[in-house]
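Raw record, unedited: DNA-3-methyladenine glycosylase 2 family protein
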Amino acid sequence: MSSRFAPRPTRTTVRGGETAVPAGVPRQATAVRTRTWKPPFPLDLGVTVGPLRRGPADPTFRTTPDGSVWRASRTPEGPGTLRLALRSGTVEAEAWGPGADWFLDRLPTLLGASDDPSAFVPRHRLVAATARRRPGLRLTRTGLVLESLIPSILEQKVTVDEAYRAWRLLVRGHGEPAPGPTPNLYVMPDPRTWSLIPSWEWHKAGVDNKRASTILRAAKVAARLEEAAAMEPVQARARLELIPGIGPWTSAETVQRSNGAPDAVTVGDLHLPGIVGHALANDREADDEAMLSLLTPYEGQRHRATRLILLSGHTPPRRAPRMRRTDIALL
């Protein structure tokens, strides 16, 4: 198609220069802030921020064919949208909304600048081989607790498909459209909105009363829980576990993302012990105790070790049936 038929871009002045915005984009979407950052280490953008995505249709996270990653969050300064792209070893970041500067100020930490993989020493051939193939793995640190805690609560004792569906319905139904030019990206509800979701909406999303009640308890003390992002992982987990309904599985899944915790190994998982057992000892029947024993050489770095094992693709073939879908009407 001739270029004369293409919409003429407008320009908006931003920190660091100008950016082209297609005609027809709402005015508020053009208030973009930008930053570039060249990490002093190899970075695999997708592998590093991938754990923040809750399923292929996560309304707060999107990847695009050009390799960009889009993420919408509720920051301490308000809703924000972040777009990341890695070009020739340099991260190009754009951000929109009240949380834009908060996002950009913490960009290196989000992408693993506070992570120290040099402390990790592979003790198994599989782990060593994967570490060599994945030098760009860094442990992300979002500095945000509730956005990882709530979807982790939704994942308790159900299939991942059920949990992803619940997250999708609740965020789209009760969150708000993310600032910026990308449609169908949403910021999760604020704590007060979570507390006002009626019981039938939880039921429609497939969330039983136990998980819904845990989320409501967390929302009531959201500010105290968010403080955990600045704590050491052990103390952060202890604070989260003061909330009834939040145990070791949920706290580990949260601080892995919010605090970049390299040793927060997930226990109580249906599949992880068998995966670790199969990879390190050819024991697909391993339980939590056996998994922790196998991970003893990685004390202080056990979460990183499990990430590498999962990235290796060396998982046991399924023999047992998957977890059955839950009918909350029977609970």
